Write the structure tokens for this entry.
Amino acid sequence: MYEIDQSARRASAQPREAAFYRDPYVFYAAVHVASPTFHWENYGHWCFAGFKEVNTLLRDKRFGREILHVATREELGMPEPKPHTAAFDLTEKYSLLTLEPPAHTRLRTLVNRAFVSRNVEQLRPRIDQHANELIDTFEADGEAELLKAFAAPLPAVIIAEMIGLPAEMAPQLLNWSNRMVAMYMFGATEAVEHDANRASLDFMNYLRTVVAERRKQPKDDLLTHMLTADPVDGQKLSEEEVISTAILLLNAGHEATVHTIGNGIMAILESGIDPKALFADDKQTEATVEECLRYDAPLHMFTRYALQDTEVDGIPFRKGDVMGLMLAAANRDPTRFRDADRFDPFRTDGQNVSFGAGIHFCIGAPLARIELQVAMKTLFERLPGLRLAEKPSYKNIYHFHGLERLEVEW
């Protein structure tokens, strides 16, 4: 499944092989022993798996999410954009996830207010209501595929409503989002690129119609807020920025949450721990969710560019070089966590980098945490006999990490 050359600090592991994507933690454990800083041959760049290193580099301003603001394609030897991904690339052009200051600072300032903890906390009753409504639809069946019935629709509806889109659009939003996210997989094919581009085009066209409606009839939603927010540095958000931000929030606002709900439920059921103890009170519920995020993170790698010639851990980086920050591997660092590979919601050394850190710390983290707390607590309270009906397996979507299906019964 993998090969590691400890002396050269090089490793090989094929992300699309089932043995790898179904359990990448075997590879992570090996690199932690051999060399937590390693050159991943399959990706062609250096990676960092240590918790301290990842946590530090996420905040290191020598590295960033975009590079063309400080260098040209010619200078970097970077190929020209592909014509058949023009629509997808446009959604990325103004994405909070890919911008660097000052553009990132301005955009995040205009959007951030909606996602601060005190504001998203007001959504808790609505999240609780929707979680119970979903369970009502399958409780009497005695069995369910939980990803489709519960984990996917819950965050999709909540983020759609928050942005200002009708709940009944959630299935279509999920369809567009899943097709776009496939672009981030290792070795995405040209067919995937064409499909992601079509989804991007349809997504943008739909949002343009909604934006036009909001200009005529403002509402109490995030779209209206972005269109009418006071300027920052003399600039309001352009329509392209509003649409790109809405797409990012919709994609990121459900994808990671879906995976964490599924991965977390599986971890809890496989642990044999009484769920009543895991959700006994608010403090323990929060600790359980944080351990789910640490133990089986939804995003395993976060890449960044070197913005200047520099050096890290004896490794020279030229401007434009890519590095991989291994979030899930850092969460399993045995030098940071006791029994790092054990699911332990009662641990006292709990922490994780699943939401990132620094200026690109996930803007939706407060909302995601509330959704996870409500979803898991409500599910186990409503279905106390919940158990796995079959062994779940992971999807071939590395560096995202989520289940194919989650068949349960009660």
Summary: The two ends are 36 Å apart (CA to CA). The longest strand covers residues 301-306. Residues 2-409 form a domain with the Cytochrome p450 fold (CATH 1.10.630.10). The chain has one domain: 2-409.
